[in-house]
Every structure is written in structure tokens, then in C-alpha cells.
Amino acid sequence: MTAVDERAEILAAQRNDHSFETLWDELEWRGLIHVSTDAGALSELFEGAPFTYYCGFDPTAPSLHLGNLVQLLLLRRIQLKGHKPLGLVGGSTGLIGDPRPTAERTLNSRDTVAEWVTRLQGQVSRFLSSEGENAVRLVNNLDWTAPLSAIDFLREIGKHFRVGTMLKKDAVSARLNSDEGISYTEFSYQILQGFDFLELFRQYDCKLQSGGSDQWGNLTSGTDLIRKVEGQSAHAIGTPLITNSDGTKFGKSEGNAIWLDAEMCSPYTFYQFWLNQADADVIDRLKVFTFLSRAEIEDYARQVEEEPFRRAAQKRLALEVTTLVHGSAATQGAIDASEALFGRGDLATLDLQTLTGALGELKTAEAVAGTAIVQLMVDAGLVASLGEARRAIAQGGVYVNNVQLVADDTVLAESDLLHGRFAVLRRGKKTLAGVRVAQD
């Protein structure tokens, strides 16, 4: 099966849960609504005739991340109801960047932003159907901002914005109260996003914009602008910022975002991220990030309560989301790698990409063939000293590529190398490290 065929099959299998009376009810149950314009009107809109809606994604990096995945899945759920999504990738807003709470963004070059626009458009299109009367349409706000002069922009759009209101926006006020301050460039971002909604309203009769709740000020800048210029109502939905049960920001791994691009976050790393979700968080993750039904999720909630040691919910979550993002083959590779690393499979069967992704999660020692294993254990951080390494081997707790070591003078042989360059060290059942041999 080709990647395109598999993606079509994944999309075809997705369903909204018909045990809910309305889509709005399901979105609320899944925890996808933090703030919105008129909830009653939105519920009626969802149940009515097909309408156009959108979400914007700025190319401030070469890949989308888990926060963006929340929006993509919300767009997909609304599309499954029969409505028409627009995926906006911001070729103009990406040149500026929305204000961060702490510091000014570094502006990327036009060529870089253009390249990232193309990459993000490809990612957006993978999660939404391009078939049928409500096929996704990709748009780029550079198309309508580039031809507009600064004078025309100020006269036609800027005059509808009040500085006092703009200053009250959360991101703006946070920056004004910081040592960094805020530039006029980032201060103007909300005007550009409001203009986007107005333009899409005019071109496509777009009635709804979604985004993270931290973007609420930018979302309502569009609804306000449409009301002032066109005298009509439009809607906005702000999804909650997802956090862990301990209050930390979700989707961060040692300070790095969990990206949707396999080159920036390997399928193995991605799978392990979901597999390691806490019991207190996993059910909420199933609601937001999977298309499992309410009945299925409630059954997993029972299993978490009664048999948490089985981690059935985490395994299903990791399977579903990794397959959604990376496909079934990469997901199976991640599962195989996880099993093999901990001695329940054959490391030699892992392809180079999967093995490299898995070892990327481990402390790794650089080596040459012929190096003593005890020295590699020290270099890789498995033990603090050569003496400790020898004692661990004597106790039968050290493995090279899942083969138990019996002699403490064993060296790394060419035959030990996986794909001619890697080896896996394990101490006990769960403590792992990698060895990498430089190639000529």
C-alpha cells in the first residue's frame, strides 16, 4: 500500500461519535472548547447546512507540532460533519510572528518562510480529506496582503482597530510589562490576523475561525472586524491549552516540542512520548487525539482505574496517534524497536532509520571497534567506574545487543555492530545506552 493510499484509508476510517446528540456536545465532552462566541449559535451552525471555517498555521518552524495537531483534529471533526475547511498557512503572518509572552521573535528570511509554507501545507493536507464537496482548500494570506500597500492597509483595515483595545490583548500586555517590550511589527500581528478572517469571509463566506485559547485576542480581532466592516456576525472557538496533570505544558520533551515531522521527531520518539503518558492524563489524551468512541474511551478509563499496571490505555493511545501521524509501518517499527531494545525482540531486524531514531533517545558513547565494553559502559553513563562495570557483568546484568555478557574483558567486535555502526548496551532490565562507531 502506498503512503497516499494508507492516508486515504486512515481518513476514511474516522468517524464522529453518533452517541452524542450534536457535534457541539461531542466537542465539549472531548474537552475541545475552552472559550467561544455564542455556543448556542455555533451548535446550530454545526447541525445546519455546510459552511466554511478555517484555522491558521504560521510557518515559524519547518514543521507543525502537537499544539497544531489539536487544531487539525478539530478541523477534521467539523469536516466529518459535512462542513468545508480552509487550511491557512500564513506566508505573510509567518514573516512577522505572533507576539510571544517573553521576547521578540527572530525574523526569518522570505525564502525560509516560503519553504516552510510549502512544508506546512503538505502537513495540513495529510490530516484533512481532499475528496468530495467539502474537500479541504489550502490558502496563503500572502496572496491578499502582498498586493496591498501600507497606505491602503492603514486606511482600509487599520482604521477599524482601537489602540486601547489592542493593548489589552494578553500577549501584548504581557510584553508591555516585560523588560523586552514589544515592537510595532509584532503589535500589528492581530490586525493582520483579523484581516485574514475578513478576507476569507469575503472570498469564501467563512463563518468560523478556530485556534488555541491563547490566541483568543487574535481570533476576536477577526470577528470584530467583520462586524464593523460587513455588519455581519462570525464566530470563533478557542481550544484549551493542554497541560499535564501536574500543570506543566503538554507536548514538551526536555524543552523541545514534539514535532509532526519524522525527521525532527522520530516515530520511535513520538510513540514513546504517548506511551509514557501518566494515568492521570491518558484518558483526556484519548478524547482529544483519537477518534475512539465514548464507549471505548470509558472502557479504557475503567481499565486505568482497575488495572493500571497493564497500561492498556497508553498503548492504545500511542498506537492510534503514531499511526495517525506517521502511518502503520513506522508505528510497527517503533513498537518493534521498543520491544527489541528491552530484550523482547531481535535488534538485528530493525531497519537503520528505526534503530537510529530509537538510539537518539539514549545516552550514546562514541567508540571504535576493539574498545572494552567496561569502558563503553562508563563512557555511556551506565556506570560510574570500571570497577562498577565489572561487578555488574559478574552479577549477570549486562547485555550487548541483548546478549548477556559473561567476561569483563570483552571488547566491542565488528560483528557486534548493527548496520555496521551501532550497538546497544543494557544494564539490568531497563537501563539502556547506545554505542556509535564513526564511519570512514
Automatic annotation (TrEMBL):
Sites where the protein binds L-tyrosine: Y54, Y189, Q193
Chain ranges for the short sequence motif 'KMSKS' region as given in the UniProt record: 249-253
Domain Tyrosine--tRNA ligase SYY-like C-terminal: residue ranges: 369-431
UniProt motif 'HIGH' region: location: 59-68
Catalytic activity reported: tRNA(Tyr) + L-tyrosine + ATP = L-tyrosyl-tRNA(Tyr) + AMP + diphosphate + H(+)
Predominant subcellular localization, coarse grouping: cytoplasm
EC number in record: 6.1.1.1
PROSITE patterns: AA_TRNA_LIGASE_I (PS00178), S4 (PS50889)
Keyword ATP-binding: yes
One example GO MF annotation: ligase activity
Alphabetical UniProt keywords: Aminoacyl-tRNA synthetase, ATP-binding, Cytoplasm, Ligase, Nucleotide-binding, Protein biosynthesis, RNA-binding
Residues given in the record as ATP binding sites: K252
Localization terms from the record: Cytoplasm
Superkingdom to which the source organism belongs: Bacteria
Family of this protein: Belongs to the class-I aminoacyl-tRNA synthetase family. TyrS type 1 subfamily.
Function according to Swiss-Prot or TrEMBL: Catalyzes the attachment of tyrosine to tRNA(Tyr) in a two-step reaction: tyrosine is first activated by ATP to form Tyr-AMP and then transferred to the acceptor end of tRNA(Tyr).
UniProt-listed NCBIfam families: tyrS
Quaternary context: Homodimer.
PANTHER family xrefs: TYROSINE--TRNA LIGASE, MITOCHONDRIAL, TYROSYL-TRNA SYNTHETASE
Name of the protein described by the UniProt record: Tyrosine--tRNA ligase
Lineage, uppermost ranks: Bacteria, Bacillati, Actinomycetota, Actinomycetes, Micrococcales
Gene: tyrS
